[in-house]
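User: Round two. Same drill as before: sequence, then structure, for each protein.

Assistant: Same drill it is. First protein:
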Amino acid sequence: MLLKKTVFITLLLLTFSCSEKISEDQLALLNGYWEIEKVTFSDGQKKEYTVNESIDFIKIENLKGFRKKMKPTFDGTYITNDTAEPFTIFKKEDQFIIHYKSAIDERSETIKSISETSFSVINTDNITYTYKKYEPINITK
């Protein structure tokens, strides 16, 4: 019985110690252009995205920011409209939560990981969205 408890506690500690801690300084890495790479649903099924017609531009400063849909063109410019989705970020139990609120929608996503080349979030429906840094299409004449 004691051995089972010891193994359980050890596994629990390993699980939590291996989870990625995100610092407030890392949130600045969200600034820039991102494209969806994959979605992992709550049942474990995945949807991979190989080509994206639109990308997200994220701008954050002092735990406030916005997300805007952009459509890249072949000449290196972007087509967009004036619609930007504002958000705030707050910390709850060592996790950072992105909270979106508009007149028609309110939702939250917990940031799971952030690096210079990718980030992922999980929403309240247990769906994980993984993004990668957008690499512009470079067509030379």
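Second protein:
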Amino acid sequence: RPRGGILTGALLAALLIPGRVGANPSGEGVQPYIDLLKEEQLAPLEPSKGGTQPFIDAIRRKGNPGEGVDSTGYSEAIREDLQEKEAGEERPSGSYSERLRRGMGPGRAQTGAIDAVLAGKSDLTMKRDLEGIKAAAGFRIGTVLSRDYEASGGIASRPFDEVYGGGWNLDVTVFYEFQPFHSEIFGNFGIFGSASFQHFKGTGVFSLDLPKPWAPAETFGSESRTRFDFVSFPALIGVNYRMNLFRVIRPFAMVAPSAIAYLERRSDRSSSHRGLSFGLHVSAGASIPLDGLSKSMTWDLYQDMGVKHTYLTVEYVRLTPISGDVSFLVSGIYSGLTFEF
């Protein structure tokens, strides 16, 4: 016979033979194939305390008949297993970045970005906002000065230099400058105000050098034991203009009327002298930028105090008298620092 006919006949014979596969032994009907497979290969499911036992637990118990069924979920079992492993080890402390930094080893620097810039070990650069500069402030000190103070009306018996000498004396000025116009290219125009303090010490001088009665060839000398202190407080308000030449040097010029209050005190019981004089202050000089000398200092001044530029200032000053019982004539060099905000 042909092969197709043989296979067809075998299939029909199998279906017609009564047995367990084709019919239910109880005679109630044909049993589905999947039910028969469960009955022969899987053990009956036992109910758990909380209800129907999960299918995965039944399979686990069938593979390990001697073990009980774990009532916890699979994720909880994994979590407990991880906790048991970590119990015997020291858990890492600190944030994730700190643990990474510790992993770099002791040879790696642990400084911030700003520290690296200040140390010159970074490609980054500090950026200061140099726009909107509206003011400047600073101080100056008299370095090399020539003074000629004269009292009018015959109230002085000796020249000023003979009493107080011609050496260096304390002369300090503090100032503030408001800048209604400022340009990093064209320079700035400012309204300037300052206050100064000057102090001189000297010894009184006799008008006559008296001889000693017991030794006519000798004298007592012209120096008195009386000590003198002369202090003056110049104050001025004026205008100035500071130019900008290639941002390397900034020449400036200033003019202002000046009022000088003064006081002379003596160590004896004689009365002191005080008064007020006026003069004209004119100066010219140059401001030299110091921003590039120290990056760390420049950044600290900018961050803490808002200083945008720092200058070394050197200027020639001339004060000429206008009125007053004491005429103040001063010329010389002042130097100091200027800070722009």
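Helices lie at 3-16, 33-41, 55-63, 74-87, 96-103, 113-118, 160-164, 295-305.

User: Perfect.
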